[in-house]
Amino acid sequence: MGNMNKNQQDTEKRAAALEAVKFVKDGDVVGLGTGSTATFAIKELGQKVTEGLKITAAASSVKTEELARSFGIQIVDIQNLGFIDVSIDGADEFTQTLDLIKGGGGALFREKIIASLSKNSIIITDASKKVEKLGAFTVPIEVIPLAFQYVFDQVTKLGGKSKLRKKDVETFITDNGNYIIDADFGLIDAPQELARSLNQIDGLLAHGLFIGLTSKVIMSSGNEILVFE
Ligand code: A5P
Asked: For this structure, is 111 an active site residue?
């Protein structure tokens, strides 16, 4: 991608992030996503915290936790949270019906827990993330290492051309100590069905199909903000 494009994309990511942050109120428990788009929201929230906004936050990754702390945002443990008021996260793809693929950054498991706990789950994107059908982006699947071959074979049986994710030459390891399989199902006609089939595989911790978990997508495109809900 050329620099012009990247600058334009960053401008869009930031614009969507600023719009989403407007939904955060004093006293809220806020879910913080992972990735370059979520980072714009975290920075903006940090700025508001220095100006007096009182929030606590649940972080979807170690990276996000470190970033949020560096901006003075107070982090709370997710394990005892009954709900999250509002969460702000990016996505790798989304459709008009608010189905998503997430997990390009490998944080899908915690991101999914945060989305599930959220009363208001906001996704922020630039214009490049909107698709007619999910699946051009491969579906990330987090797998417990012991079950790797089993899960890999089951995913293959479901039609997913699978690859173990690498970081350079090493196997990519998630914050939870697990592996990621990136599965290419082609364009996905029935994402909900596929999600259900994947959910039934033992040893598969989480997959990147987020179905029915999103309250709204705020997409920035050029000078426009579009909201899908
Ligand atoms: C992280 O695991 C992902 O779900 C991210 O939300 C996704 O990869 C979007 O990242 P960018 O905002 O960097 O595109």
From this structure: yes
